[in-house]
Amino acid sequence: MRSSRFAYMLIVSVVVGLVAQIALLSTVHAQETRDERREIQQGLNDKGFPVGTPDGIFGPKTEAAIRDFQGSIGQPQTGALTEAQIDILLGRAAPLVAPEDTLDVVAGQTFRGCEDCPEMVMIAPGSFEMGATETEQDNAFIGFVPQEQPRHQVTIRYPFALGKFEVTVAEFDAYIQATNAPTAGICGVRLAEAGPLAEKFSGTRHPESSKDIYGPYFVYITDGSYAQPGMPVQPRQPAVCVSRNEVLGYLKWLRGKTGHAYRLPTEAEWEYAARAGTSSVAFWGNDLSHACGYANFADKASGYQAGEAAPCAEAVRADWTAEVGSYRPNPWGLYDMAGNVQEMLQDCWLPDYATAPTDGSPVRSLTCQLFAARSGDYVSLYVAMRSSARMTFGYDPQMEMVQGPTEALDIRSNVVGFRVALSLGAEAWDR
What's the pTM value of the predicted model, to 2 decimals? Predict the structure, then answer.
């Protein structure tokens, strides 16, 4: 009797153990599947087929993006990826159909992919030292900036093109008029402390936009957009108050019009193009007191607080953003690579360069809520006009924000715009 009972209990114990193991394996497999799906969604976002914040759930928006991606590589648009297509999407294999490189690469030459497309400047492959220079670190007003270290060599082995200017209100409006894409929402607006725009803004103030949180010179409006960024705006000013999701939609539209894979530049591509072959603090040299001829920032004549530290006053009297191309270009013919507005980049934010890519590719993360930005803006200190200066854009858990972490791709600001990039060689990271 006892032996039978013991045998029975042993069998029950083994069965229970097997069930537990199966349940555990099922849970692990489900997590792996969800992580893989989030990686696929991030890959679709990176390729210019927007799905929003990667959540591992393949709804209609993700399926539509998959179909668009499949069409771009000459495959049947089923909405369900094969293993081979996943490998292509995530860069683990070459495309089934080679991209049509119809553009002859001539460094410095400009072109437009279509009538409404941004004007592009071709950039040749090359190497450069990325990060803060010794001159910057020796400057008492700048000093050691950990997020710009360690300085390291980056080699970009492929040609690419970068927008000659920041994307303008008129260029973004062409997309909206052609597609009727939804736009507008919560936008952070920086107000002037003095001058004709002092403490003025247009739009509906968000009920949670508290002066106690952000001070009297930064508010959130609920109806901000590229056409209504809280300040008076003209067609040739940079498009701001645009979310990352809206920008991804714009890039997808450019891709459909031209057949070329327009995207955001990576942080390494941006600094390489901004330096334009120089190794100085700024592309015009080491003396930042000359910044007024090259950049729109908080200068002495501005109505912004940071202007009190400025060494000069700009000849261009912009109350906030200036029309693109109002200042001198860098040696490669790119305008506003310092100041005017911060520019969104492809990369997820890294707090330093210890693990940064060295081949021009972007920093990626499946859970990215905070992204890298460059260029400085019209309210920045003059020392932010340096080629190495870094900013962030998106959801920052260290700040008390009106929008939360699930809305990182829908955050807007009237100090942040963008310019577009386009790979021209088959060795590029997005090919």
Answer: 0.83
